[in-house]
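In this section we walk through a basic example: taking a raw amino acid sequence and producing a predicted 3D structure, encoded as discrete structure tokens. The instruction is simple. Fold the sequence below.
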Amino acid sequence: MPIANVGDIQLDYERSGSGAPLLLIMGLSGTALHWRESFLVPLRRDFEVIVYDHHGVGASSRLEGPITIAEMARDAVGLLDALEIDSAHVLGISMGGMIAQELALAHPERVRTLTLGCTYCGGEGSALTSREVALQLAEARLSGDRERALRASWEANVSAALVDDADAYAEFLAIGLRRPVALPVIVAQTQAILAHDTSERLAQLEMPTLVIHGTDDEILPVQNGRLVAARIPGARLDIFEGCGHLFFWEQPERSAELVREHAAIAV
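The resulting token sequence is shown next.
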């Protein structure tokens, strides 16, 4: 992946496809590889798709110390600047959805349409990962056994319908082993998530917004999607029955089609 100079850091990124720019913002412990070809291929027919690795991930600059969601949003805007993109359709999932919220609030003129997947806004009525699931993930990560940590992450991120799919898990495992994310980076990203709260500001958003969430999400329960959509004027909410956190792994074609339909609103 090529490297872009973004302020005083560098971000590795990839752009592919043709059409209006679509910036994809990944979530906690994720990499550009996690978008998966089954989701990206249909998007490339209509968009110039831009994916990147966060500060501290992949070949992007090392992360030294804490970081905030707002700072990661500034990184995303800086990447658009570096690529000479005035405005883009923006899709963020999980932590990436939090980053997309801050990006859209700080720079609404840069966001043609906003899609928020499996994300969270903080405030009254929101809910983070349950204590039980959070402990399982923490224990697996602290074990020092990367494959155990990846298996625990897989089981928490997908529904019961996908968890035993050997081919899908093999792909997830290969991505995690090929581009591992260091534990201190995951901790810093987790702390950023815990401090995130846009709940009282989302009413300021005026761009067309789509919110997607799976009913079986164990990382960020589905009530978060309903809350986010309720707080953004005119937002459309699409609930994926039986899907876990990684809804775009479970239903990639439907997910891509929703993004295409939503982007057409701004044409």
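Looking at the output, two observations stand out. The mean pLDDT is 97. Strands lie at 3-6, 9-17, 20-25, 47-52, 88-93, 111-117, 209-214, 236-240. In the next section we compare this with other chains.
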